[in-house]
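User: Could you walk me through two proteins back to back? I'd like the raw sequence and the structure tokens for each, with a short line separating them so I can tell where one ends and the next begins.

Assistant: Of course. Protein one, sequence then structure:
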Amino acid sequence: MFDRKKLQDKAERLVHHQVKANVTYMVAHLNEDEQEYIRHERWKVFRVENQDEYGIDSDEMHEAFMEHCIPEWWIVSDSLGRMLAHQGHVAFPYGIDYLWGRPTSGQAIYMDRSIQEIAESLS
């Protein structure tokens, strides 16, 4: 069993080295084409993650997507972005890095379950 303190330290190092910047404000003020790109990428992830619950491309799925909120946006490294996307997060290429739609807010990133799981998998 992995020691909790060691896992926390590993998750903190992961965040320190691979989470680059909070860009929530920037995302809110992107031009229309960039906003459309982000909506399209979010839709692709949302559609796959929710097709069993709503059915493919149903009106209910579209309504749920419109209500789906991502409280924070972060620029993360390519490798972390790929791992988050593999877990089903909204994370997609944006320049040379990834844009990650963090589904939670209000706690340190290293405490997020997904980050803890990635840190543990890297041991």
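----
Protein two, same layout:
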Amino acid sequence: MSEIIEDSEVTEIEKQVILEIEENIGYKFEILNKDEFFYALPSDFYSILEPKYGWPPTDDIFEEYDDINDKCRLAICIENNHIIGLSIKFHPKLSPIDISQLPKSFKNLKFLNYLVINHHYLKNIHQFLDYLPNLEFLSLTHTRLEYKSGLFSYLKDLKGLVLGYYPRNFNLIKELCEIPSLQILDLSRTNLKSIPECFHNLSNLKILDISDKNDIHSFPRNLKELKNLELLRIYKTGLEIIPKDVQLPQNLKEINLKSNHFTELPNIYEDLPKLEKIEVDSDVVVNYIRKTKTELYSEFRKPIGDINFHNLYSLTQKKKKFLKL
């Protein structure tokens, strides 16, 4: 039988927080070990938390936990008698969790490192961020977050933040510029129309996701300063054109530009030495290959044959080789 909060050695003040939430929602939290609890976190967080697993992580890492998806919806993680992780996740296949307000005592979870909340009806999480200075990973998908000035000012060690699947106030988005420690930022489905100019302050950012039904028609111009950026997702945004002179960070390894409206892809990636993967729609690839073959034939008066280019990076390398002849 799984351990419950009453039988744990958690400090009494933190134990009371969990008991109050349990009383409000009518369900018990389950105590998970760290490996189990990490499964409750967004997959991008693994690149920071568990680099030994590689990226992206595969489900077979946790195959020993048969019912882990169910467990993770109401779970806590304990270390040194303190609650370091808490997860409240809506699950469409399970009975609904009715929670609109966290108890005032929630501010006593001062040792929280990982907080995952996925709930449409929760209204007051913004009231507690000032009291959670040790947060390193915060995921609030489908969850309301009211804007207030200095909302994230106390989260000095925050490395991962997911705010997806809920419309966000643009002033709230600008507040993110005050978290230079961020390494992962997910703003998918937030009704984002542009990236604030101040995003250049996020110099430690490694993963940026601004995809999936955001209303971004112009390619962001202020990404070059994100010198540590490795993964960029801008798919399903309505992006209409990629300027030929746009500049990208030199450390980029992967770009996802699928399901947008542009049909021409300029050679924006030829000067990205670490690029391993670029995802675009098939018609964009066809147009690029046709154009590149035409350019090579025209320039060197020689056919290059029926080459099966598996990705645009290999095509670029082939083009460079011909240009050196």
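The two ends are 70 Å apart (CA to CA).

Let me know if you want the two compared in more detail.
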